[in-house]
Amino acid sequence: MRLAPASLLSIQDLWIDVGSRPVIEGLSLSVKPGEMLGLVGESGCGKSVTALAIARLLDEPPMRIRKGHVFFDGEDVLAKSERELEQLRGNRIAMIFQEPMTSLNPVFTVGDQIAEVVLLHRQSDKTAANKRAIELLSRVGIPAPEQAVQKYPHEMSGGQRQRAMIAIALACDPELLIADEPTTALDVTVQAQILELLDDLRQETGMAVLLITHDLGVVSQYCARVAVMYGGRVVEEALADELFSKPKHRYTEALLKTIPASNQPGTELPAIPGTVPPPGARPKGCAFHPRCAVATEICLSSMPELINQTHSFRCWNPVE
Amino acid sequence: MTLLEVNNISKTFPGRNGAIVRAVSDVSFCVEDGEVLGVVGESGCGKSTLGRSLLRLIEPSAGEVLYEGRDIIGLNRKDMKSVRRDLQIIFQDPFGSLNPRHKVGHLIGEPLDVHDIGSRTQRLEKVKELVEIVGLPQNAIDRYPHEFSGGQRQRIAIARALALDPKLIVADEAVSALDVSIQSQIINLIAKLQKRLSLSIIFISHDLSVIRHVSDRIAVMYLGRIVEIGPTERVMANPRHPYTHSLLSAIPRVGEKKSRSNLSGEVPDPSDPPSGCAFHSRCPKVMDICKQVRPKLMTHFTDVGGEVACHLFDK
């Protein structure tokens, strides 16, 4: 099976279990070269597991990919050997996470950690790799990069650490950057700086970015296209403007209405009842039906297919 | 009527290499009966230390906290215990504040036991009533905290805080760890209870959009000090301090074009704050005087409510 050449990454009908509990239940998603795609969802919806699956970084076991395909540049990542995967990770696919302190190694300088990636994937000597490290730190906006390469992660602030992580990720000019909640641990003024940096880098290098977040505001402002996840599936996908102005899925609609910023101060927020079902306890049919205000008989028993069009959604009773 | 009057409260901690970290410096404000005061700021601004100092969960280094006109800072254990009935706190992580070995009914009723209020039957009645008003199922009483989701656990923490019929609650990032769809439920609950019980609330959060929604007045903190305080509507529509302005414009909002942050750098180390106005190192409107003289928090405008600490408005 080959994919449409328009996609850099194409996930098709992916199923992942943790033990006997399904976490991802038939997820399909594609990322085009050079675009920033926002993947939004609440905790337990499976967005981080999806990110790890793309780079084959899942803990297997207990996690297990039951079926599906993850095509990266036309080749199925799920069929690759560990050696082939090593040539992809950190090289053509890079990742950054929420808490840079847990991804950075505390006993090596930031410069060493960037140089390590360069030495691993490029024909390069130590001097050239160090030069590249300085260049990258400068590019991600760290002041005095010549000194900064000598610093250990704990000597940097949270925002600088995330910049250093981005520098490591960029070391080999990846075609796809997976950014999993990259600004969630940061202050709001620093968050804006990091998101701007990612967006500038995307435009400059042409890399695609898969931005995973729970923050609808972030996605609305930085992503051209958005996919909304619920219960281990993408339930709606569209251009950001379209999705935020005319949501189709009842979950997306409810989520947009419930955020304080969309409401008059002091008024009662249109709340979504109940809680996000954890993997293993998801209801049959549409996973959102117990919390949905307009659920009908059919929502209880079966999940609608994601119609593949410019604005796709899985909902039996979409917003008109 | 003024319920709580805070005068020049400060809290310092010993830092690395003999440095002194000024977590809260010289903060003064009032909370009226039935008022919600929002306290907003980035990490390290001292908002949580402030909240805890008010209840003496952390002993403040200086200043006074007048509760119904009486300074509670000097009170002995016994007197403080009776004041604590009126002053309660809810934390960000309800799992960290609820003992996993106790059943929910016990956790909610514990404050009643500690303060020896009512008979056993009366206490049980009260617990049932609390479970009801925070929207938990009645069978929650006999279950353990781990059986509940984050949102439900926060309801338990709220019920527990309400057990002694307090007059003031400090909500410290009470909805920050919750999912978007759960956050609104808890915000609604707090707002409903606040009205129904005419509670005063000090609502501490880093999230200005939540603060805007729940607060009557907003205090904006930066590096241990209040830089602006005023009625919510005025602060949001017409922020005067450059920091408030930056904070507002940095929030990404759905449907709006990109919020460009005009701030460079990050919050400086509180053990070594910049001279003069602590914000001067990041301020887009910095002037010479800002580097030398710390501006006082004061009323600059007769037409709009509130106070600002900024040299831009010096006469």
Verbal overview:
The complex is a heterodimer of chains A (320) and B (315). Chain A has helices at 47-54, 82-88, 100-103, 110-121, 126-139, 145-148, 158-170, 188-205, 216-222, 240-245, 250-258, 297-301, and strands at residues 9-18, 21-31, 36-40, 63-72, 75-76, 93-96, 176-180, 208-213, 225-230, 233-239, 312-313. Chain A is of the alpha/beta class. Chain A has two domains: 9-92 and 174-313, P-loop containing nucleotide triphosphate hydrolases (Rossmann fold); 104-171, no CATH class. A seven-stranded mixed β-sheet of chain A has the order 6-7-8-3-9-10-11, sandwiched between helices. Chain A has a four-stranded antiparallel β-sheet with strand order 2-1-4-5, covered by helices on one side. Chain B has a seven-stranded mixed β-sheet with strand order 6-7-8-3-9-10-11, sandwiched between helices. Chain B has a four-stranded antiparallel β-sheet with strand order 2-1-4-5. The relative contact order of chain B is 0.14. Chain B has a domain at 2-86 and 166-236: Rossmann fold (3-Layer(aba) Sandwich). The longest helix of chain B is centred in the middle third of the chain and has 17 residues, at 180-196. Chain A binds chain B through residues 42-43, 157-160, 187-193, 195-196, 214-218, 220-222, 244-245, 254-256, 258-263, 265-266, 268-273, 275-276, 291, and chain B through 42-43, 149, 151-152, 179-185, 187-188, 191-192, 206, 208-210, 212-215, 232-233, 236, 246-247, 250-261, 263-264, 266-267.
